[in-house]
Specification:
InterPro entries: ChyE-like (IPR044992), Class_I_gatase-like (IPR029062), GATASE (IPR017926). By secondary structure, this protein is α/β, with parallel strands linked by helices. The protein has 7 helices and 11 strands.
Length: about 240
């Protein structure tokens, strides 16, 4: 009898745990595993912001990789960001599945030849309605229990950088009135999402409070709070890793 090999996935963590997330969720790793892991999978954590990366020789043993968000700039030249770009180029050549979220979405774009930078319209924080492009199909990334593809979905956003130009050959899948590239794919293995499908509302609330308290931006907080109150629960299951075996 053939024994099925355990599927392994890696979370490339580009952000340090906040006190709130550690207290409530036990760390961002648990947030991501809850959102994306399937039963029977093994997920490994690499704190790339601390310079911890998987060994090159071990990349082949993983089914897929997720790159988290980060307060750092995807266009920065810190050593770990340059190392990450090299790893992503290697994974692309190996045709490994890679999902990038927020910073991860942006650094994927940079590593594969696109352009990223500061958002011309400034910070985007709160709940944003994103629209799918006309030629968008689900490519098996979403729960097939949905009867039809909705024209728009609401997702948590928290960023001041953005993808300015996707790599040649990549396809824009979604946009919003604030950000031109909310989602893109490159082949069947690369998917970038500007928003945070893994976040719950309370995580966004805590981030907003911390950003306001440390003076990261000046904004009318009542506007943000009202946007959060209007939040419709966004809990679509991504099957990106689990459909393209």
């Amino acid at each position: 009898m053939k024994v099925q090999r355990e599927k392994r996935f890696a979370l490339l963590m580009a952000v340090r745990d906040s006190d709130y997330v550690k207290k409530v969720y036990g760390g961002y790793f648990n947030v991501f595993v809850e959102a994306f892991a399937d039963e029977g999978e093994k997920w490994d954590l690499f704190c790339i912001v601390e310079g911890e990366f998987p060994d090159i020789d071990d990349l082949q043993n993983y089914e897929g990789f997720v790159i988290s968000g980060s307060p750092h700039d995807a266009y920065g030249d810190e050593y770990w960001i340059l190392e990450l770009c090299f790893i992503l180029q290697t994974l692309f050549a190996m045709q490994k599945k890679v999902l990038g979220i927020c910073f991860g979405h942006q650094v994927l774009c940079r590593a594969l030849g696109g352009k990223v930078g500061k958002a011309y319209s400034g910070w985007d924080i709160g709940i944003r309605k994103v629209s799918f492009t006309e030629d968008f199909t689900f490519y098996g990334y979403f729960d097939d229990s949905l009867d039809e593809i909705p024209p728009t979905l609401s997702i948590i956003e928290c960023h001041q950088d953005e993808v300015c130009e996707v790599p040649e050959g990549a396809q824009v899948l979604a946009c919003s009135d604030k950000t031109r590239v909310e989602m893109f794919k490159f082949g069947d293995n690369i998917l970038g999402i500007q928003g945070h499908p893994e976040y719950e509302k309370d995580i966004l609330d805590n981030i907003i409070d911390r950003l306001l308290s440390n003076g990261s931006f000046e904004v009318d907080k009542s506007y943000i709070v009202n946007s959060v109150i209007a939040f419709q629960i966004y809990q679509t299951t991504f099957l990106f890793f689990h459909n393209h075996s």
